[in-house]
Amino acid sequence: MGQLLSTIFGWWRDTIDCKKKLTNEKVNLPSPITNSQQSLSSCSNVKSHDENLKIEVVGNEKKVSARPQKYIRVEETEERTSGVVGRKWRDCRSCEGEEDLEKGKGKGKEKIIIGVRRIKHYRSDHKILLVGEGDFSFSASLALAFASATNITATSLDSIEFLSTNYSRALSNINTLRSLGALVMHEVDATEMANVLPFKRMLFDRVIYNFPLAGFYRDEDREDQIRLNQRLVQLFLQNAKKMIHKDGEIHITHKSNGFFKEWNLELIASINRLVLIEEVIFHLGDYPGYNTKYGFGGDKNFDCVPSKTYKFGHRKPAEKANNRLMK
Q: 296 with 135: CB under 8 angstroms?
């Protein structure tokens, strides 16, 4: 009983901290976003981390990180360029003659990639970042499908202590990921990660956030709860768009009915100068071993039907020009 009360208290404390981050003072609360009101706060940080900030020097440049001790140090020679960051981030598509094979001759010849594996929207040669993982079962599902995880970075907001205490399969999934070559990191905040190392110097083909949720607060009305969750998505997209290639994609899998549909993800993305590429019905069975866990822990799965995967990407030059003409 004592351990149960300790776990509940820890979850309650974390929920309060999360709420403080996503909430401004009452007098400044905007209304939930609707099609007729297309504005969100442009502030990229909700609360000050002055007490937690630590300065580290990389080359001749100072870097500020909220939790630098939790991140892997990136050498000054590595840059966020074509997405090749360190040995694990080799861009297979640029390695002609090593993993490409020419098929046929003359004009009809085509190139195929040897050893590339797929699962639904994802390929083993994609550089993939996953944020907000619960028991890491989704990232483990990808890794097992690929038989490799060298292109996978999987992160959680929770600490390893919380995960090991509250999800029975978390450590097993993490061990699977690491054994297959994944980079696994904890206490990573998806709403500010683009500005800290090592993420500041990384680019990905896919950034994935499954079922984002700021939490449910009994003392807040429905509109305020929607606004808090819109704020979470807004800050995540602000960060994620800095971390994808020009042809990269941001995937948000999200329940598509009732309260959740009112978040209006497409509009939030548009405000962040992102476009909806497509939305696809999500089927849990497409990802063997994936369990939809509650954020407060436990081994019970929540019902994810109906849900969709929303794919967002950068606006193309032609789309930007058309938008200017429409204005």
A: no
pLDDT value of residue 74: 34
Higher pLDDT, 308 or 33: 308
DSSP 250: E
Decide if pLDDT at 5 tops 60. no
Mean pLDDT on 283-305: 93
Q: What is the dihedral of CA 164, 69, 189, 272, to 10 degrees?
A: -150
Q: What is the structure's pLDDT at 148?
A: 95
Q: Which of 272, 278, 283 is nearest to 307 (CA)?
A: 283
Please tell me the chain's helix, strand, coil percentages from 3-state DSSP, rounded to the nearest 5: 35, 20, 45
What's the whole-model pTM score?
A: 0.68
CB neighbour list of residue 190: distance below 8 Å, 6 or more residues apart: 131, 132, 155, 157, 209, 235, 236, 239, 240
Say if residues 162 and 12 touch (Cβ distance below 8 Å): no
| Separation between Cα atoms, residue 22 and residue 16, nearest integer Å | 10
| Strand partners for 129 | 153, 207
User: Which DSSP string corresponds to 51-87?
Assistant: TT-EEEEETTEEEEESSGGGSPP--TT--SSSS--SG
Does 54 score more than 90 pLDDT? no
Residue 322 amino acid letter: N
Cα angle 204-210-211, degrees, rounded to a multiple of 5: 150
